[in-house]
Amino acid sequence: MATVRLKKGFDIHLIGSINANDIVEIGKPGSVAVVPDDFHGIIPRMEKKEGEHVNAGEPLYHDKNYETIKVVAPVSGTVKEVRRGERRHIDAIIIAPDGDTDAVAIDTKRDAMDVLLESGLWVMLRQRPYDVVPVPGIRPRDVFVTAFDSAPLAPDLDVVLGDKRQYIAKGVEVLNKLTDGKVHIGVREGQNIDAPGAEVTTFEGPHPAGNTGVQAANIAPVNKGETVWTLDIVTLARIGELFTTSKVSHDTVVAITGEMVQQPRYVKTVMGADMETVMKNELTNVAKSRIICGNVLTGVKVNADQWLRAPYRHITVIPENNKPDEFMGWASINPNRFSIYRTFTTWLGGLKKPVSMDSRIKGGERAIVRTGEYDAMLPMDIYGEFLIKAIISGDIDKMEQLGIYEVAPEDFALAEFADTSKLELQRIVREGLDKLRAEMS
User: Fold this and answer.
1) What global pTM score does this model have?
2) Residues 439, 401, 372, CA angle at the centre, nearest 5°?
3) Which of 181, 288, 291, 416 is deepest in the core (most CB within 10 A)?
4) Which helix (H) or strand (E) holds 291?
């Protein structure tokens, strides 16, 4: 087993981590929703209408450009509402469940790509370049799987896996049929993954060591003209389970963490469950809480009356911006103030002690200054600041030369946190990838 030691990056230690690995099974959700924005690169065309019944595993909609790409219902029930926003954009497809979570059976004795497309698991994969749902029919050069999450307050994916660990080997077998290269699995030090047929690499170092993009960049970087797929170990196990049982499981284990959570813990529910069910009696103060599906760096803000977003296995709840007029603001000499740099005295006691952070940005956007901040947070062979400038200026040639094909917005999340210019780096990278994809199509 090869070992990669990463020095760049930073571990953010927040209050509200989970101290036990017990999983609590919560009640059945009152509603379940699928949010099309979770599957970037797909233009939805509905197959079900409001008021129609849908079975678990049955398609709700398909992609306008590739009709074989299906997004399926995680539960059986009635399509209660197709909620639309501006310009008739589909914000959410809401299902009133009837209590049946047993998915429809799928014939797995055929081409593996066709099975994944029909089952809906295809949309859980990501393609680089562009960080979108993969284009059907294109065989990836390699497949990269991460077996751990290094983000702040991230769940232990070994706990999330649970008894689905038995399907990992089958998942590797399936993916090996779909690639001309190798299936790479990145693990942390001391983690044991039994995956015959996969190349296992140990990664040591701070966040973002758990990102598949960082792992790929340190094993076999993506070059122009090449395509790779990325996913996590839980999705790999779901694929193995599908080809073992002929059914897709939409159950999920979610870590509820953060300073505003009464008792951080793991809960078992269904993908897309309503937050009211998932977060029932969990928050210390709902009005002063920001609920995030995912981690604080890359997650999506949701309201208490919305739903658990499908790709995430993590909910973080931090204090909302409740001190907009704090005395002295950023110039405060409070010893509990946190900074990666030596702006405050916190560093004297070390930066591994859990700290309290709220949702404030604490600063305004300003010009990019060459500081090396991005490079220190990005363990990839990329000049981050120059790439961001190329994206902002719309210079496609420079974007290509500076490595945009191997990055995704999440790779710049930590740099965005550390950025003294307060730029929305993830949004900039996403817009750059979308523009490049449109130019190349």
Assistant:
1) 0.95
2) 120
3) 291
4) strand 289-293
